[in-house]
Amino acid sequence: MAETSGWIEIEEKLSALIEEEEFEQAVIDNSRNLIKACQFFASPAQVDRGYNPTICLIWTENEVGVCSDHYEFYSFQDGGMNIRHFNRKSDEPVPEELLRQIVAIPH
User: Fold this and answer.
1) What is the pLDDT of residue 40?
2) What is the C-alpha to C-alpha distance for residues 33 and 27, in angstroms, rounded to an integer?
3) 72: which strand partners?
4) Are the C-beta atoms of 10 and 2 separated by less than 8 Å?
5) How many other C-beta atoms lie within 10 A of the C-beta of residue 91?
6) Which of 34, 49, 62, 47 is CA-nearest to residue 6?
7) How many angstroms separate the CA atoms of 56 and 16, rounded?
8) pTM reported for the whole predicted model
9) What is the pLDDT of residues 32-90, one digit of tens each?
């Protein structure tokens, strides 16, 4: 089980980032929904602004880019990068396959 304090810190960092930067409301909503869906998994090391602008949750060798209509799961291993795309509308749950990828991230 993930340490709750890690996710609380990520939520606080997300709130600060939202105050500092301008994001589409769908990006903010998708970020908050992802954090809520993942609260029992290993928390990321940080949350930051991505391109476009997006919001990124960053683990050691993995990253999730949160966009207004989809998520991008990045895996950085063995000098390479693999990107998986997961469509999502704000009224839909976080894709289960994305959650399985996050659960598999080493602690």
Assistant:
1) 87
2) 10
3) 65, 85
4) no
5) 6
6) 47
7) 14
8) 0.89
9) 999 999 988 889 999 999 988 999 999 989 999 999 999 999 999 888 999 999 998 77
- CA-closest candidate to residue 96, choices 86, 84, 82, 83: 86
**Residue 106 confidence (pLDDT):** 79
The tokens describing 63, both together, are 């990253």
Cβ–Cβ contacts within 10 Å for residue 12, how many? 11
Q: Tell me the DSSP string of the chain.
A: ---HHHHHHHHHHHHHHHHHS---HHHHHHHHHHHHHTTTSPPPSEEEE-SSS-EEEE-SSEEEEE-SSEEEEEEEETTEEEEEEEE--TTSPPPHHHHHHHHTS--
As given in the structure block, the two tokens for residue 6 are 């890690």
For 95, the token pair is 């894709």
